[in-house]
Amino acid sequence: MSVSVPAATLNIVLNGFFEDNSFVSGAEATAADAEIFNALSAAPDASVFPHLARWHKHITSKGDAINSLKAAEAPVAAAAEEDDDDMDLFGSDDEEVDEEAEKLKAQRLAEYKAKKEAKGPGPAAKSMVTFEVKPWGEDTDLDELEKMIKGIEMDGLVWAQKGQRIPVAFGIKKIQINATVEDAKVSTDDLSDLMMEFEDHVQSVDIAAFMKL
Question: Which H/E stretch holds residue 174?
Fold first, then answer.
């Protein structure tokens, strides 16, 4: 995982992420959690970032074991490719093709197919994106606008439960909301364009942070 955002923004992004997730990747703490933990300069304020503070307290309780956490399970695709290289499905080219060879080939194909199906697909690559949606004015109903934004549905898109209101100027506030996306299925450009279609409400859409998971 790579993170390159200001500390203040990182806390906001992570707090939104840990609202819906216990750990950075999977159902238990991994080396990715240790990396994020070490990137934080101080313990988060629980009154401002309750979800991030909960995660931080849990990781802190591991003490020196933090730096020995294992990496998350890697996708099985690489292992499957190695199996492809190592497995001789059809035997030697010099081997005489006869009935026994054909039976052996069919058996190996069946075993290989069963092995691939048992492994299943590897985990999809995901990212967490923080959008900032600026309305036209202070009279814009931000609650209604947030419902419209979260009404955008795509396969591989999950919105955070609640967006935040960030002051801009002259009483205007913008919506900051996180979304977890599957990289192969969801385009952030498409999402931005869809939000801009709410032209009576939305003045601009920006990506404040982008983090690979």
Answer: strand 172-182
Question: Distance (Å, rounded) from C-alpha 178 to C-alpha 153?
Answer: 14
Question: In a 3-state reduction of DSSP, which class is residue 211?
Answer: strand
Confidence grade of residue 82 (pLDDT, cut at 50, 70, 90):
low
d(CA 194, CA 202): 11
User: What is the widest separation between alpha-carbon atoms in the chain?
Assistant: 84
The model scores a pTM over 0.85:
no
Alpha-carbon torsion (22, 61, 28, 184), positive or negative: positive
Q: Which residues of 77-99 are buried (b: 16+ CB within 10 A; e: fewer)?
A: eeeeeeeeeeeeeeeeeeeeeee
Residue 188, phi-psi category: left (phi > 0), alpha (psi -120 to 50), beta (remainder): alpha
